[in-house]
Amino acid sequence: MAVHNIDVEQIDMSLNLSNCIGEVSEVGGQERWCDLYGHGIRVERRPSRRATQVVAAATNGLTWLGTISSLAHMERHRITPGTAVDLGSFDPAETSGFDGGKQQAKARLRTLNNRLEELQEVLYAQGKHKVLIVLQATDTGGKDGTIRHVFEGVNPQGVKVASFKKPTPEELAHDYLWRIHAHTPGRGEIVIFNRSHYEDVLVVRVHSLVDETSWSRRYDHINEFERILADEGTTILKFFLHISKEEQAERLRARLMTPDKQWKFAAGDLAERELWDEYQAAFADMLSRTSTAWAPWYVVPADRKWYRNLVVSEAIIDALEALTMAYPPAEEGLDEITII
Ligand code: AMP
Ligand code: MG
Questions:
Q1: Other residues' Cβ atoms within 10 Å of the Cβ of residue 122
Q2: Nearest CA to ligand 1 atom 3
Q3: pTM here?
Q4: Which of 18, 149, 188, 272 can bridge 69 by disulfide, Cβ–Cβ 3.0-4.6 Å?
Q5: Is pLDDT above 70 for 160?
Q6: pLDDT of 70
Q7: Is there a contact between 133 and 195 (Cβ–Cβ < 8 Å)?
């Protein structure tokens, strides 16, 4: 591919590059080339760090632009706003974006964990940005495992998990976003929603807990609610962990038969499993109606836990790197201080 001279000043530094590149093809050695909006971009791998550096061949030499995910076709998992999602076209067992198997993926995740730890530390120190991560899935979809593995090693200070269960009478006496808003991240914080306001267009819809007129207008409410958060400085990433019905059966069996997992088994999960198709339809509508430029959904292939962890981790790291954060400046005159 020919390399075009591009004016790097014109490229939005906040772009999440992983979402707009085409296939990366190897040209030789450490160098790779890819296509960004029709421009040739030279991609250099720096093996000592997690980051894949993206450098553009500009008239004034090579200029660093940002980083891209090392997973191929990350953009495939992200739902373009306004797309009608057919979940049947997403393979829950897909692993093709990673050039390796389970063992290599574990090693890779450790590198990603370290990088996330570094990024979270700057986020916290700088106290400027807010980050909200939403996890939704069917029962056994892997929400808890994702949190445990993706955030392993990250300093718990500045990271919170909010789990949303069946609403209490007090919560039900309010609008459905009341309990949610109270848990959104403050400056410097990462908040992970383990289930979320999306239950109000999922379980609530499937079980007709409110009438259709009420739940069907919630998609617009939710988009506007998330827009408020985004306008006020929150980076929002939403992950739908996509597993197959067969994989759910395996995981429910494992919960039933393993003493250490039995606490997770709820008899009600079997009744929910009977409603598989209704839930899949509700998930598809949720993805179609609420993936926005300011709060995109990712459909994460989640039958293979190791691949699921890589996709979620890379997407979060890409988004944090796109914030181009920095430690706050030191106080003046530190060089004149001597500690005695
Ligand atoms: P778990 O995540 O397994 O602890 O289960 C939490 C339960 O709370 C799930 O069965 C959810 O469907 C349910 N839940 C969460 N939010 C809502 C909601 N807004 N309305 C009704 N049920 C909910
Ligand atoms: Mg459960």
A1: 17
A2: 139
A3: 0.82
A4: 18
A5: yes
A6: 57
A7: no
Model pLDDT, residue 266: 92
Query: What is d(CA 234, CA 189) in angstroms, rounded to the nearest whole number?
Result: 10
How far is 334 from 327, CA to CA, in rounded Å? 16
The answer to whether position 240 is within a domain reads: yes
Residue 31 falls within a domain, yes or no?
yes
Domain that holds residue 19: 2-60
Do 160 and 285 lie in a common domain? yes
| 200 in contact with ligand 1, CB cutoff 6 A | yes
Q: Are residues 131 and 45 in the same domain?
A: no
| CA dist., res. 240 & res. 227, Å (int) | 19
For residue 176, give the ligand 1 atom closest to its CA: 19
Same-domain status, 79 and 56: no
Q: Is the CB of 164 under 6 A from ligand 1?
A: yes
- Judgement on whether residues 249 and 110 belong to the same structural domain of the protein: yes
Question: Which tops the pLDDT comparison, 107 or 188?
Answer: 188
Q: Which pLDDT band, with edges at 50, 70 and 90, does 321 fall under?
A: confident
Nearest to 78 by CA among 311, 305, 285, 303: 311
CA 165 – ligand 1 centroid, Å: 4
Mutation test of ligand 1: which of 138, 166, 202 has the most ligand atoms closer than 8 Å to its C-beta?
Answer: 166
Q: Whose CA is nearest to atom 22 of ligand 1?
A: 166
In a domain, 340, yes or no: no
Same domain, 283 and 212: yes
- What are the C-alpha distances in Å from 314 to residues 16, 20, 187? 11, 15, 22
Say how many domains are in the chain. Answer: 2
Centre of ligand 2 to C-alpha 328, Å, is 41
| CA distances, 280 to each of 3, 9, 86, 276, 338 (Å) | 44, 43, 10, 6, 64
Closest ligand, as measured to the CA of 264: 2
Q: Which atom of ligand 1 is nearest to the CA of 272?
A: 10
CA of 135 to the centre of ligand 1 (A): 13
**Quick one: 48 and 78 in the same domain?**
no
Q: Domain check: are 78 and 56 in the same one?
A: no
326 occurs within a structural domain: no
DSSP-based three-state secondary structure for 331: coil
